[in-house]
Amino acid sequence: MPKLKYQTNLKVQAITRHFQDGEPLSSICADLRVPPVVCEQWCKDVISGLPSFFDQSLRKQDRQKDRRIEELHTELARKQDVIGEIMEAFTTLKKKNGAN
Questions:
Q1: pLDDT tens for residues 32-75?
Q2: Cβ–Cβ contacts within 10 Å for residue 75, how many?
Q3: Mean of pLDDT over the chain
C-alpha cells in the first residue's frame, strides 16, 4: 500500500490545534481524517526539531553541511564531464585504430 502524503498546511493545522489550542489528537485526527499514528509522528518530528530551531550553532552546522553537499555535487558534475570527455576521446581513438 503506497504511503499517503499530506499537505503541509494540513500538518501545520493539526500541530497548531494540538500544541496551541490543547485539542486532543484523537479529535483532530477524526476531524482531519488522518490516522492518529501519523499525527503523533508529526508531533514527534516537531519536538525533535526544536533544538536546532533554538540553537544557532546547530543551524550553522546545518548550513555548513548544505554548503559542503553543494560543493560535492559541483565537484561530481565536473568529474562526470571529464570522464565523458575521456570516454569520447577513447572511442574516437578506438575507431581510428579499427578496434571495436
A1: 999 999 999 999 999 998 887 787 777 788 889 999 999 999 99
A2: 10
A3: 90
Crossing angle (nearest 10°) for helices 36-54 and 56-96: 100
The grid coordinates listed for 24 are 486532543
44 to 41, 47, 48, 88: CA distances (angstroms): 5, 5, 6, 51
Q: Is 43 within 8 Å of 15 (Cβ atoms)? A: yes
* Cβ pair 49, 38 in contact under 8 A: no
C-alpha to C-alpha distance for 34 and 51, rounded to whole angstroms: 27
Give percent of the chain with pLDDT exceeding 90. 75
d(CA 85, CA 88): 5
Residues 6+ apart with CB under 8 A from 12: none
